[in-house]
Each structure stands twice: as C-alpha cells, then as structure tokens.
Amino acid sequence: MSSIRLAFWQGDKRAGYNRNTVETPREKKAIAAKAKRLALTISELMRRGAFAYESGEKDAELAALAVAARMAAIRSGAAIDNALSFIVASNDRIAVIEAKARAKATRKDEFQSQRSDIPVSIIPGMGHSDMITRPEAIRAIAAEFP
C-alpha cells in the first residue's frame, strides 16, 4: 500500500495530490500528460471522463438491443426468402400458362370461327393491336385480299 497515496484534504495539503482522489504517482503523470495532449485541465479531463463513464447496466441494455436487432434481421431475411420463393413459383406458373397459350395459338385446327364464310388466318405472337401496327401483320392481311 506504500505505492498508493491517499489525500482527502483533511488538513493534508501535500503538493501534487488532488483531493478526494486515489492515484499512484504513475497514474498522476499519465493523467497530466493526457490532459496536456488534449489541451485540457486535469479537472476538465476528469469531469469529461466521469460523464463519459457508463455503468454495466448500459452494457446489458446494449446487449439486449443487439440481440433484438439480430432477431429482427433473421426474421427479415426469412420474410425476404419467402417472398422470393413465392415470386419464383409465380414466375413458373406464368411460364406454364404462357407456354400453353403459345402452343394453342400455333394450332390452327383448334380455332373455330363463328362464321364459316369469312376466312380466318392466325398469325402467332400477335395481338389485336398488332394487326394494324406491325408490318408483317399488314402484309398477311393484304395477301388474303387479292
């Protein structure tokens, strides 16, 4: 205990020791050097240190917050995975529907016209608006009327 000097300002005014502190000469030098490096008084450095100190309760609160954030991230990842799986399945269903529609559009014998006196030509891959806007459709229509 001889290396630690106590000063509680009870009539003891030994030079170089702060009142109400417990510090070794090595600690005092380190504190003084840090205060000088930061251009602060020792009192200001100690005041800032006291306000910056957080108890272990804050660490426990931060740990609980970190656990909650991690769990939220896991749930978010699972929700994203579920959404992506749904999108893939939906795209597969749409591809099947489109393939059936393309196959049906290429078979002329399945199309039954309402009027047998009007000739019908099916041009695969074209819709109603394409029949008046796309050059290949207009050529096909023109070829039906000599």
Describe this structure in words.
The structure is a single chain. The chain is mainly alpha-helical. It has three domains: 5-52, no CATH class; 54-106; 107-146, no CATH class. The protein is built from five helices and two strands. The chain has a two-stranded antiparallel sheet. The longest helix is centred in the middle third of the chain and has 51 residues, at 56-106. The radius of gyration is 43 Å and the shape is rod-shaped. 0% of the residues are buried.
Write the layout of secondary structure elements.
Elements (H helix, E strand, L loop, with lengths): L4 E3 L13 E3 L1 H13 L4 H11 L3 H51 L23 H4 L1 H10 L2
Antiparallel strand pairs: 1-2
The domain tally reads 3
Q: Which runs of at least 5 residues are low in confidence (pLDDT < 50)? A: 1-13
Give Rg in angstroms.
43 Å
Beta-strand portion reads under 5%
What is the count of helical runs? 5
Order of helices and strands: EEHHHHH
Please give the number of β-strands.
2
| Structural class by secondary-structure content | mainly alpha
Q: What is the makeup of the main sheet?
A: 2 strands, antiparallel
Query: Per the principal axes of the C-alpha atoms, what is the gross shape?
Result: rod-shaped
Mean pLDDT: 78
What proportion of the residues is helical, as a percent range? 55-70%
Widest β-sheet, arrangement of strands: 1-2
Q: Span from first to last CA?
A: 119 Å
